[in-house]
Write a structure and sequence with these properties.
Blueprint: E1 48-52, H1 57-72, E2 78-82, H2 85-97, E3 104-108, H3 111-118, H4 126-129, H5 137-142, E4 153-157, E5 160-165, H6 166-172, H7 180-192, E6 198-199, H8 208-220, H9 223-230, H10 239-251, H11 264-272, E7 278-282, E8 297-300, E9 312-314, E10 317-322, H12 329-339, H13 342-352, E11 357-358, H14 369-380, E12 383-385, H15 388-391, H16 397-409, H17 414-430
Parallel strand pairs: 1-2, 1-3, 6-7, 9-12
Antiparallel strand pairs: 3-10, 4-10, 4-11, 5-7, 5-8
Helix pairs in contact: 1-13, 8-9, 8-10, 16-17
Amino acid sequence: MSDFDPGRRRFLGHLGLAGLGALGASSFLSACASSASGPTTSNGSGAVTIQSNLSSPQAKAAMEKLIETFNAQGKGTASLNTIASETFRTQLPTYLTSANPPDLYTWYAGSVANDYASKNLLLDVSDVWKSLDDYPQSLRTLSTDASGKQIFVPMNNYWWGFFYRKSNFAKWGVQEPKTWTEFLALCETLKSKGVPPIGIGLGDTPWVASAWFDYLNIRINGAPFHRELLAGKQRFDDPKVKAVFTRWREALPYFDPKGKAYPFQEATTALLAGKTGMFLIGTFFADAAPKDALGDLDFFRFPIIDPAVPLAEEAPTDGFFASAKTANPTGTKALLSYLSGVEAQEAYVKASSGIVLPANPRAKASDSPLVVKGKAMLDEAKELTQFFNRDSSDALQPTADTALTKFIDKPDQIDAILREWQAGAEKVFKG
């Protein structure tokens, strides 16, 4: 539901990819101009104001439909104020700190929400969560701040994984791996057939490498350590982080050497053409895929490295948080309860374009095999992480881009790279 960095996480609405139903309602949302330019306010008995960045035609229409339905139910009234995504991003701190802020906001879970909560800017919505006992614990954890209060209500998410073409795996006589050992064996088999096993697109999208770091860290050291590291509570030159790179180094010989020169869109093209075997990427990657290839796509989860580490998955999650200064907390919570329900989330999926995976476990998404598989993987996870910048900050992302691309070029310099990364991170955390 939220916006994405330009060129980074685009939506698939223009391709009509209902068969990839879990791709999130986020990436195409920066396309359209705002229908309003600033915050509006509510009073204690008036309409709850939603400040929304969902400005693409389909997403905006879907939200308008939800608000219309909510208002017709007689449980409260709400008004929608749609803002162009990049304007929303830059103005969000102003909205939240204004004297009379909007009540409710579309945005995403992770460090941004937690940071606002730490400044006492977000409403405690734990009351809403009392009726969400069927939501998975992973989403509850993701929506909980450091003090133990729930400050976020999820609407939808999508997943990351190793994507491949089923016809190519069949042609090569290989199967999905489950463990790291099996993964490396698969890579060796593909390499022996003359196929670069692992696609990568670092060109002008170096952030793709962060998915490798995120997954290796949560598989080896666990999601709690990963979050602490990205929050500045652990060090990038810690031996635990070095262990991540030591393991990653085992896979480097299987990376497509050409992948360092082009972006993820071209890496997608190479995958679809059978020029690489698989690609660790988010579901949004399919915006570069022709429609006739979609039914041939499949994925497997990032392989298990240490079975003792609780299973976590990357699943950027979008939804809502509310202002702590709302003049109508009762009405705001009533609207959040509606938005968290099956009816609203299924309606959003249907009205937006069918390409979102609803957060409510009882809400129906697309019934395509790919979506069913993706949802099952996320439901099985004990914890969900977001993505490097969502779990840290946009300011920290360039330090990762520098460190990770340098490592891929010079894997024998791990210690120096990690020292440099820690120094760069300290500058960010100290402001």
